[in-house]
Write a structure and sequence with these properties.
The protein is α/β, with parallel strands linked by helices. Helices cover 45% and strands 16% of the residues. It binds zinc ion (ZN).
Length: 382
């Protein structure tokens, strides 16, 4: 006997309908339950904050550029395959990942999420992972072997450090609140303090989720719509950065290996980083969406970013080799002494980074100083 399990194909149904699709035989009681659940889910989707700006960057590819926040979120890239979504990176907390998913539902598609990629182990790219366990229980988290290892080693400790660091900034914020001159400034500081308290409360019982699926150097997902090539191309921002490239649509998602801010080198490999970036130039991309800042067209910022890391590393190495201290190097090597930080690149960085708190010159100088300190410490990492 041939069973006739005829389930109607929900071709044009809403995602809520799909998520809660029931066999035709569902009893009336079940229908009432489903209606109630749909209403609850719809309210949850509608009430989530909008933390990102979603933009279609190519057919089947969207950038989710994080709006500025005290507790920063990384950008995401959403690849829409024939039957499912792959989302690159998971932000600084589960509620931010949940907010992104709700926004994707509102603005893009009801398709199920099947893969999440962690580009690297940093807190602001991975701490939303637990939200996907709840929101997309069938989804798998993918990363490189090295990034999974780093997440298991440092994930929980880094989460605590970030919460403690944020809380430690509250006395200073309260102090600034007292001396704030305008109502707008007071309002902004109060919002920051509230955000930190909410972050600390949310992360109180945080448990990291480790990726399910890892690869050594590359993994390709084949799909009717387009191919997605996940690769580890060498050490750079961390020991295990993953990039995602879609050859058909020429989109490259780079995490923090390449983005529109100053590099963060605290866990980096400054001598290897430019070489790893050079391998990205072999990919025929048109658009790059990095982990922070706006999407980039072409390879201009890739060149800027790489030249800056290479020149600064060279300068720090030569000064360190003759016995100079970090402080001495920070006074000797400044923005005007770096060819790679030309006026045009500096104004680009200021346009991406400025929150109006520092003058452009202060912003550039403080970033160069902290990059020097990190390079000094990480120079001979092996
Ligand atoms: Zn990072």
């Amino acid at each position: 006997m041939k069973p006739d399990h005829h389930h109607p194909h929900p071709s044009r149904r809403s995602f809520l309908g799909q998520a809660l699709a029931a066999p035709l035989s569902a009893a009336l009681l079940d229908q009432a339950f489903i209606r109630a659940a749909k209403a609850r889910a719809a309210t949850q989707v509608a009430s989530q904050p909008t933390l990102f700006t979603l933009t279609k960057v190519a057919p089947g590819a969207y950038s989710a550029i994080a709006k500025p926040k005290t507790i920063i979120n990384c950008n995401a890239v959403i690849f829409e395959n024939a039957k499912y979504l792959l989302i690159v990176d998971a932000h600084s907390k589960p509620s931010a990942a949940a907010a992104l998913v709700a926004q994707v539902r509102r603005e893009i598609t009801p398709k199920p999420i099947r893969y999440i990629v962690n580009t690297h182990f940093h807190w602001d790219h991975s701490e939303g992972d637990p939200a996907y366990r709840r929101l997309a229980p069938g989804a798998e988290i993918i990363t490189s072997d090295t990034t999974r290892e780093l997440l298991s080693q440092f994930g929980a400790a880094r989460a605590r450090i970030e919460v403690e660091g944020a809380e430690a900034s509250i006395p200073d914020l309260l102090h600034r609140l007292e001396s704030a001159k305008t109502p707008e400034e007071k309002q902004r500081i109060r919002r920051s303090i509230a955000e930190i308290h909410a972050f600390a409360a949310e992360m109180h019982n945080y448990q990291p989720e480790l990726p399910d699926l890892t690869f050594d150097s590359s993994l390709t997902l084949h799909d009717k719509e387009h191919e997605l090539q996940l690769t580890f191309r060498g050490r750079g921002h961390t020991g295990g950065d993953v990039v995602v490239f879609c050859p058909q649509n020429k989109i490259l998602a780079t995490g923090d290996l390449l983005h529109g801010w100053f590099p963060f080198i605290g866990d980096g490999y400054p001598r290897d980083w430019p070489k790893t970036l050079a391998t990205l130039k072999e990919l025929p991309f048109a658009t790059i969406v990095g982990g922070h800042g706006q999407a980039q067209q072409g390879d201009k910022r890739l060149t800027n970013f790489s030249n800056y890391i290479a020149e600064l590393t060279e300068a720090v190495a030569s000064q360190k080799s003759v016995g100079r201290s970090v402080t001495e190097i920070q006074s000797a090597v400044t923005a005007p002494s770096l060819h790679s930080l030309d006026d045009e690149y500096q104004s680009f960085l200021v346009s991406q980074l400025s929150d109006g708190q520092q003058t452009p010159a202060e912003l550039i100088a403080s970033n160069v100083k902290s990059n020097i300190a990190d390079i000094f410490r990480r120079l001979d990492q092996s």
